[in-house]
Amino acid sequence: MTVPASVTELTAALAGQRYLTDASLATVLFLGLRLGKPVLLEGDAGVGKTEVAKALAAALGRKLIRLQCYEGLDVTSALYEWDFAKQMLEVRLAEGGGDARADLYSERFLRRRPLLEALAPDPAGPPVLLIDELDRTDEPFEAFLLELLSDFQVTIPEYGTVRAAAPPIVILTSNRTREIHDAIKRRCLYHWIGYPSAERELAILAARAPEVPAALAAQIVGFVQRLRASDLFKLPGVAETLDWGHALVALGSVELDPATVEATLGVLLKYQDDLARITGDRVRALTDAARTGAP
Questions:
Q1: How high is the pLDDT of residue 99?
Q2: Secondary structure letter of residue 230 according to DSSP
Q3: Is 0.70 topped by the overall pTM?
Q4: Are 62 and 125 within 8 A, CB to CB?
Protein backbone atom coordinates (compact mmCIF):
# COMPACT_ATOMS: atom_id res chain seq x y z
CA MET A 1 0.00 0.00 0.00
CA THR A 2 1.22 3.50 -0.80
CA VAL A 3 1.17 6.21 1.80
CA PRO A 4 -2.49 7.06 2.56
CA ALA A 5 -3.73 10.23 0.93
CA SER A 6 -5.54 11.56 3.98
CA VAL A 7 -5.91 11.19 7.72
CA THR A 8 -9.22 9.46 7.14
CA GLU A 9 -7.63 6.94 4.81
CA LEU A 10 -4.86 6.23 7.31
CA THR A 11 -7.39 5.83 10.12
CA ALA A 12 -9.28 3.28 8.03
CA ALA A 13 -6.07 1.43 7.14
CA LEU A 14 -5.13 1.13 10.82
CA ALA A 15 -8.67 0.05 11.70
CA GLY A 16 -8.23 -2.71 9.11
CA GLN A 17 -5.40 -3.95 11.33
CA ARG A 18 -7.71 -3.72 14.38
CA TYR A 19 -5.94 -0.61 15.68
CA LEU A 20 -8.48 2.05 16.52
CA THR A 21 -6.98 5.50 16.75
CA ASP A 22 -8.37 8.91 17.52
CA ALA A 23 -8.07 11.87 15.18
CA SER A 24 -5.09 13.48 16.91
CA LEU A 25 -2.88 10.38 16.79
CA ALA A 26 -3.90 9.62 13.21
CA THR A 27 -3.02 13.19 12.24
CA VAL A 28 0.46 12.97 13.78
CA LEU A 29 1.12 9.64 12.06
CA PHE A 30 -0.12 11.01 8.74
CA LEU A 31 2.15 14.02 9.04
CA GLY A 32 5.07 11.77 9.93
CA LEU A 33 4.52 9.84 6.73
CA ARG A 34 3.97 12.92 4.59
CA LEU A 35 6.86 14.97 5.97
CA GLY A 36 9.26 12.06 6.44
CA LYS A 37 9.67 12.89 10.13
CA PRO A 38 10.16 10.44 13.01
CA VAL A 39 7.25 10.25 15.45
CA LEU A 40 7.88 10.11 19.21
CA LEU A 41 5.02 8.53 21.16
CA GLU A 42 4.96 8.89 24.92
CA GLY A 43 2.46 7.50 27.39
CA ASP A 44 2.05 5.07 30.23
CA ALA A 45 2.91 1.43 29.63
CA GLY A 46 0.13 -0.55 27.99
CA VAL A 47 -1.67 2.25 26.15
CA GLY A 48 -0.77 0.92 22.69
CA LYS A 49 2.40 2.76 21.64
CA THR A 50 4.23 -0.29 20.32
CA GLU A 51 1.09 -1.53 18.61
CA VAL A 52 1.01 1.64 16.52
CA ALA A 53 4.22 0.63 14.74
CA LYS A 54 3.04 -2.93 14.25
CA ALA A 55 -0.30 -1.84 12.83
CA LEU A 56 1.31 0.80 10.61
CA ALA A 57 3.77 -1.70 9.13
CA ALA A 58 0.99 -4.20 8.46
CA ALA A 59 -1.32 -1.55 6.98
CA LEU A 60 1.37 -0.28 4.59
CA GLY A 61 2.73 -3.72 3.77
CA ARG A 62 6.19 -2.77 5.04
CA LYS A 63 8.71 -4.73 7.05
CA LEU A 64 8.78 -3.95 10.76
CA ILE A 65 12.26 -3.62 12.25
CA ARG A 66 12.25 -3.35 16.03
CA LEU A 67 15.03 -2.14 18.26
CA GLN A 68 14.10 -2.91 21.86
CA CYS A 69 16.01 -0.47 24.05
CA TYR A 70 17.52 -1.32 27.41
CA GLU A 71 20.06 0.10 29.82
CA GLY A 72 23.54 -0.35 28.43
CA LEU A 73 22.42 -0.71 24.79
CA ASP A 74 25.46 0.02 22.64
CA VAL A 75 26.24 0.68 19.00
CA THR A 76 27.34 -2.91 18.39
CA SER A 77 23.92 -4.26 19.32
CA ALA A 78 21.92 -1.50 17.66
CA LEU A 79 23.84 -0.68 14.47
CA TYR A 80 26.49 -3.13 13.33
CA GLU A 81 29.34 -5.39 14.26
CA TRP A 82 32.17 -6.97 12.31
CA ASP A 83 32.23 -10.71 11.72
CA PHE A 84 35.54 -11.37 13.46
CA ALA A 85 35.48 -15.11 12.74
CA LYS A 86 35.27 -14.49 8.98
CA GLN A 87 37.90 -11.79 9.22
CA MET A 88 40.31 -14.12 11.04
CA LEU A 89 39.71 -16.82 8.43
CA GLU A 90 40.48 -14.28 5.73
CA VAL A 91 43.72 -13.34 7.46
CA ARG A 92 44.79 -16.96 7.73
CA LEU A 93 43.98 -17.56 4.06
CA ALA A 94 46.20 -14.60 3.20
CA GLU A 95 49.01 -15.92 5.40
CA GLY A 96 48.72 -19.31 3.70
CA GLY A 97 48.88 -17.84 0.22
CA GLY A 98 45.19 -18.53 -0.50
CA ASP A 99 42.71 -16.36 -2.38
CA ALA A 100 42.26 -13.78 0.35
CA ARG A 101 40.81 -10.32 -0.09
CA ALA A 102 42.53 -7.33 1.38
CA ASP A 103 39.71 -5.23 2.85
CA LEU A 104 38.58 -6.72 6.13
CA TYR A 105 36.13 -3.85 6.71
CA SER A 106 33.92 -4.30 3.67
CA GLU A 107 30.27 -5.26 3.19
CA ARG A 108 31.31 -8.91 3.15
CA PHE A 109 32.24 -8.83 6.83
CA LEU A 110 29.56 -6.45 8.06
CA ARG A 111 26.75 -7.75 10.25
CA ARG A 112 23.77 -5.44 10.09
CA ARG A 113 21.84 -4.78 13.28
CA PRO A 114 18.37 -3.14 13.37
CA LEU A 115 19.37 0.49 12.72
CA LEU A 116 21.62 -0.34 9.79
CA GLU A 117 19.12 -2.84 8.42
CA ALA A 118 16.49 -0.10 8.38
CA LEU A 119 18.63 1.96 5.99
CA ALA A 120 18.99 -0.86 3.45
CA PRO A 121 16.89 -0.73 0.25
CA ASP A 122 13.72 -2.84 0.32
CA PRO A 123 11.63 -3.62 -2.77
CA ALA A 124 8.46 -3.37 -0.66
CA GLY A 125 9.35 0.18 0.35
CA PRO A 126 11.11 1.72 3.34
CA PRO A 127 10.49 -0.32 6.49
CA VAL A 128 8.89 0.83 9.72
CA LEU A 129 11.69 1.22 12.28
CA LEU A 130 10.40 0.91 15.85
CA ILE A 131 12.83 2.21 18.48
CA ASP A 132 10.94 0.93 21.48
CA GLU A 133 11.19 2.33 25.04
CA LEU A 134 13.95 4.80 24.28
CA ASP A 135 13.77 6.04 27.87
CA ARG A 136 15.44 2.80 28.98
CA THR A 137 18.72 3.73 27.26
CA ASP A 138 21.22 6.32 28.42
CA GLU A 139 21.95 9.77 27.04
CA PRO A 140 25.05 8.77 25.00
CA PHE A 141 22.87 6.38 22.99
CA GLU A 142 20.34 9.17 22.40
CA ALA A 143 23.18 11.35 21.11
CA PHE A 144 24.22 8.56 18.78
CA LEU A 145 20.69 8.55 17.29
CA LEU A 146 20.76 12.21 16.30
CA GLU A 147 22.48 11.67 12.95
CA LEU A 148 20.07 8.88 12.09
CA LEU A 149 16.95 10.84 12.99
CA SER A 150 17.94 14.04 11.21
CA ASP A 151 19.71 12.77 8.06
CA PHE A 152 18.75 9.08 7.99
CA GLN A 153 22.39 8.15 7.82
CA VAL A 154 24.98 6.65 10.14
CA THR A 155 28.76 6.76 10.13
CA ILE A 156 30.84 3.64 10.66
CA PRO A 157 34.46 4.66 11.32
CA GLU A 158 36.10 1.78 9.39
CA TYR A 159 33.53 1.75 6.59
CA GLY A 160 32.18 5.21 5.95
CA THR A 161 28.77 6.85 5.91
CA VAL A 162 25.70 4.78 5.08
CA ARG A 163 22.69 6.79 3.95
CA ALA A 164 19.19 5.45 3.32
CA ALA A 165 18.11 5.64 -0.32
CA ALA A 166 14.59 6.14 1.03
CA PRO A 167 14.14 7.14 4.69
CA PRO A 168 12.53 4.52 6.92
CA ILE A 169 9.31 5.31 8.76
CA VAL A 170 10.54 5.84 12.32
CA ILE A 171 8.40 5.41 15.43
CA LEU A 172 10.02 5.98 18.83
CA THR A 173 8.26 5.17 22.07
CA SER A 174 8.89 6.18 25.66
CA ASN A 175 7.15 5.30 28.92
CA ARG A 176 8.59 8.52 30.31
CA THR A 177 10.55 6.87 33.10
CA ARG A 178 12.95 9.73 32.38
CA GLU A 179 12.86 12.75 30.09
CA ILE A 180 13.98 12.27 26.50
CA HIS A 181 16.57 14.87 25.50
CA ASP A 182 15.29 17.97 23.68
CA ALA A 183 17.63 17.26 20.75
CA ILE A 184 15.71 14.04 20.06
CA LYS A 185 12.35 15.74 20.47
CA ARG A 186 13.31 18.52 18.05
CA ARG A 187 13.81 15.93 15.32
CA CYS A 188 10.44 14.25 15.92
CA LEU A 189 6.75 14.91 15.81
CA TYR A 190 5.45 14.35 19.33
CA HIS A 191 2.27 12.78 20.62
CA TRP A 192 1.12 11.72 24.07
CA ILE A 193 -1.11 8.62 24.13
CA GLY A 194 -3.42 8.67 27.12
CA TYR A 195 -5.94 6.18 28.36
CA PRO A 196 -8.92 5.84 26.00
CA SER A 197 -12.46 6.92 26.76
CA ALA A 198 -14.92 4.22 27.73
CA GLU A 199 -16.48 4.28 24.28
CA ARG A 200 -13.16 3.86 22.49
CA GLU A 201 -11.92 1.21 24.90
CA LEU A 202 -15.11 -0.77 24.32
CA ALA A 203 -14.56 -0.50 20.56
CA ILE A 204 -10.94 -1.64 20.97
CA LEU A 205 -12.05 -4.61 23.05
CA ALA A 206 -14.66 -5.55 20.43
CA ALA A 207 -12.08 -5.30 17.64
CA ARG A 208 -9.21 -7.14 19.32
CA ALA A 209 -11.07 -9.59 21.53
CA PRO A 210 -14.29 -10.35 19.63
CA GLU A 211 -14.83 -13.56 21.60
CA VAL A 212 -15.75 -11.50 24.69
CA PRO A 213 -19.59 -11.24 24.92
CA ALA A 214 -20.87 -7.68 24.49
CA ALA A 215 -22.44 -7.50 27.94
CA LEU A 216 -19.29 -8.77 29.64
CA ALA A 217 -17.14 -6.39 27.55
CA ALA A 218 -19.21 -3.42 28.75
CA GLN A 219 -18.74 -4.52 32.38
CA ILE A 220 -14.99 -5.04 31.87
CA VAL A 221 -14.56 -1.56 30.45
CA GLY A 222 -16.76 -0.07 33.17
CA PHE A 223 -14.69 -1.76 35.87
CA VAL A 224 -11.32 -0.77 34.37
CA GLN A 225 -12.39 2.83 33.82
CA ARG A 226 -13.46 3.10 37.46
CA LEU A 227 -10.30 1.33 38.60
CA ARG A 228 -8.22 3.99 36.84
CA ALA A 229 -9.81 6.59 39.10
CA SER A 230 -8.31 4.80 42.12
CA ASP A 231 -5.11 5.80 43.85
CA LEU A 232 -2.82 3.15 42.36
CA PHE A 233 0.89 3.01 41.69
CA LYS A 234 0.35 1.56 38.19
CA LEU A 235 -2.96 1.98 36.43
CA PRO A 236 -4.03 -0.79 34.05
CA GLY A 237 -3.55 -0.01 30.36
CA VAL A 238 -5.47 -1.17 27.31
CA ALA A 239 -3.19 -4.18 27.07
CA GLU A 240 -4.31 -5.27 30.53
CA THR A 241 -7.97 -4.73 29.60
CA LEU A 242 -7.54 -7.05 26.62
CA ASP A 243 -5.69 -9.61 28.73
CA TRP A 244 -8.47 -9.52 31.32
CA GLY A 245 -11.10 -10.04 28.64
CA HIS A 246 -9.21 -13.10 27.35
CA ALA A 247 -8.77 -14.40 30.92
CA LEU A 248 -12.45 -14.05 31.86
CA VAL A 249 -13.55 -15.81 28.68
CA ALA A 250 -11.06 -18.60 29.41
CA LEU A 251 -12.73 -18.99 32.81
CA GLY A 252 -16.17 -19.15 31.21
CA SER A 253 -17.41 -15.87 32.73
CA VAL A 254 -20.41 -14.18 31.16
CA GLU A 255 -20.61 -11.36 33.69
CA LEU A 256 -18.46 -9.95 36.48
CA ASP A 257 -18.78 -11.28 39.99
CA PRO A 258 -16.69 -10.20 43.00
CA ALA A 259 -15.07 -13.60 43.56
CA THR A 260 -13.84 -13.92 39.98
CA VAL A 261 -12.77 -10.30 39.86
CA GLU A 262 -10.69 -10.64 43.01
CA ALA A 263 -9.15 -13.90 41.79
CA THR A 264 -8.09 -12.33 38.48
CA LEU A 265 -7.02 -8.86 39.60
CA GLY A 266 -3.41 -9.85 38.96
CA VAL A 267 -4.16 -9.56 35.26
CA LEU A 268 -4.89 -5.86 35.73
CA LEU A 269 -2.66 -4.86 38.63
CA LYS A 270 1.05 -5.64 38.78
CA TYR A 271 2.08 -4.40 42.20
CA GLN A 272 1.32 -5.94 45.58
CA ASP A 273 0.50 -2.55 47.11
CA ASP A 274 -2.13 -1.97 44.41
CA LEU A 275 -3.60 -5.44 44.93
CA ALA A 276 -3.76 -4.77 48.65
CA ARG A 277 -5.77 -1.58 48.02
CA ILE A 278 -8.36 -3.30 45.83
CA THR A 279 -9.89 -6.08 47.92
CA GLY A 280 -13.12 -7.05 49.64
CA ASP A 281 -15.64 -4.22 49.80
CA ARG A 282 -13.75 -2.20 47.22
CA VAL A 283 -13.93 -5.05 44.71
CA ARG A 284 -17.64 -5.52 45.37
CA ALA A 285 -18.34 -1.79 44.97
CA LEU A 286 -16.43 -1.56 41.70
CA THR A 287 -18.04 -4.74 40.39
CA ASP A 288 -21.56 -3.60 41.28
CA ALA A 289 -20.96 -0.21 39.68
CA ALA A 290 -19.61 -1.82 36.51
CA ARG A 291 -22.62 -4.14 36.28
CA THR A 292 -25.24 -1.46 36.92
CA GLY A 293 -23.53 1.44 35.21
CA ALA A 294 -23.54 3.44 38.43
CA PRO A 295 -20.98 6.26 38.67
A1: 60
A2: S
A3: yes
A4: yes
